[in-house]
Amino acid sequence: MKHHCIELKKTGQFSNFFLDYLDGKADLRPFYNHAPKIESFHNAIKEKRFSEAHRQVLVESLQNQYADISLFEEEEAQIQKLAFSNTFTVTTGHQLNLYSGPLYFIYKIVSTIRLAEELKKAYPDYDFVPIYWMATEDHDFDEINYFKLDGKKYQWHSDQTGAVGNFELDKSFREFEKTVPFAADVFKEVYRNAKTLKEAVLNYVHELFGKKGLLVVDAQVPALKGLFRQVMFEDIFSHTPHKEAVLKTESLESLGYSGQIFPREINFFYMDHGIRERIEQHGDEFVVLNSELRFSKSEIEELIEAHPERFSPNVVLRPLYQETILPNLAYLGGPAEVVYWLQLKGVFDHFSVHFPVLLPRNFALVLEPLIVQKMEQLGWSEKDLFQDFDAWKKEFVASQASVNFELKEEKECLSDIFDKKGQEAERLEKSLGESFEAAKVRALKILDHMGKKVRKAEERRLEVQIKRAEDIFDYIKPGGSPQERVVNVMQFLLADPEFIEKLYPVFDPLDFCMNVIEA
C-alpha cells in the first residue's frame, strides 16, 4: 500500500506530554530507564532479571490456556522458546473489544509483532516473543460492548456483571449476533463457537496473528497471580504503591504535566463470580464496595494466600503485574498509556522490578480511493488532512472569492469619514461628536452584516468544493475523533482480506509518525 509519514506534532492529535517524551526532553528523564530507541535494548536485555521459576509458571500457564486450541507451528515454537533465558517478550495490552473494536487495536498488535522482528535483526543472539495482554479482568463493559462500521454502532446489551472476560455469550449475545450477518468469517466462526468473551477474543487473535508468532496472555490465572502476592500484601496493608505513585505524579505536575491516572490507597479490586469491585479500608475492616463483603485483616491475609486470583490490580498496578510475570523488555501503547507509565517509575523501583522500554504503537489513517480522488480535486496533499476545517474553509473562501467580502478598506474609509466629520461637528456642539461615534459603530455593523451576506453567497458558489472537504474531514475524523479510534477493521478487511497483512511492511515500530495509507 502506498503510504506517507507525517510528523506527529504536525497532526494536532497528541499532547505535549507525549511529544516531549518522544523528543527525550531532559525534565522527563528521571521517570523512565531507557529511551525509545533500538539501541536502548542492549542495556534493557542486560538489566532484565527473570527467574527460571517464573518462566516455568508462565510456560505452564500458556500451555493450559491454549490446551483446547489447535496451535500454529509458530505459536508452539514461541511457547517453547519462553522456557529459555535468552528469550524475552515485547507486549501490548488492550480491552476485549467486540469484533476487535476500533482500528488501533489491530495497529497495536501489528506494531508489537514488527518490534519483535526488528529486535531479532538487531540482537540475533536472543529471541523476542510478541505478546497481547488480554484485559480479561476489566469490568467496564460499556467501553467494549460495541463496534462502529460505516457510521453505524452495533452494540451488545447484557445484564452480566464482573470481569468482562468471564461474560457468557448467552441468548442476549446470540440475538446481537443476528444484527451483524456481514461480519468477516474469522469473527463469525470464533463467536459462534465460543462460550465466553475471553474465549472468543483469544481465538480471533489466534486466527489473525498466530502465524506471526503472537501469543496471548490471560493473566487471570491463580498460578500467575501467586507471583504477585508480595505486592498484594504491601499495597493493601502498607499502601506503598500509592505513596510512590503520588510522589512521581506530583513531580510530573510540578513540571507542568497532568497525571493520567489517579492512585488510590488500595489499588486492588476484589474479583469473584459476577463481581469486580474496589477494596477500601474502613477502620479495621476491608470492605468490597457495592457488596455486602467485609473482611478482617487476617481474613484478607488468608485470602491472598489461598486465592490470589481474587485480587485484581487496577491501572496503577497492572503494569507492575505484567512485568512481574513476563520476561518483558518493552511495552507498546497509545499516547495516554505511554505517559501514564511515567507516573509509576517509583512503584517499579520500590519493588525492584525492571521498568520496560516504553514505545508508542504505530498510528495510521487509511484513505479509500474516493477520498484520495476528492483530495486530488481540491489539490490537497497528505499534510492538508490535519488542518482545522473551519480555518481551511475561511481561508479557501477568501482566496476564491469573486467579491471582496471582508471590506477592510471600505471600513477604514468609512471610519475615517465619521472620525473626521465627528471632530468637526464636535467643535460646534460637543454631543454631536458622540452622535457621530455611535453612527460609525452602526455603519460598521451594517458593513459587517453585508460582508457576511456576501461571504455566504460565495460559500454557496463554492458549495461543491466545500462539500468535498466536509466529506474528507467526516471520513478521517468520524464524529470528531481520529479514524483509528472509531472505525472497525472490517471497513477495510471485508473489501480486502489481505488488509492486515499489508500493514506489516508499512509499520515501523521505531519510526514515530502518522502513516497515511492509500488502501
Automatic annotation (TrEMBL):
Q: Which InterPro entries match?
A: Bacillithiol_biosynth_BshC, CC_BshC, Rossmann-like_BshC
Q: Which UniProt keywords apply?
A: Ligase
Instruction: Indicate the segments forming the Bacillithiol biosynthesis BshC N-terminal Rossmann-like domain, all copies.
Output: 1-362
Bacillithiol biosynthesis BshC C-terminal coiled-coil domain: residues covered: 364-518
EC number assigned by the record: 6.-.-.-
| Enzyme class of the recorded protein, top EC level | ligase
Q: Which Pfam families match?
A: CC_BshC, Rossmann-like_BshC
Is Transmembrane helix one of the keywords? no
Q: Which family would the database say this protein is a member of?
A: Belongs to the BshC family.
Q: NCBIfam families from the entry? A: thiol_BshC
This chain belongs to the protein called Putative cysteine ligase BshC
Organism of derivation = Algoriphagus limi
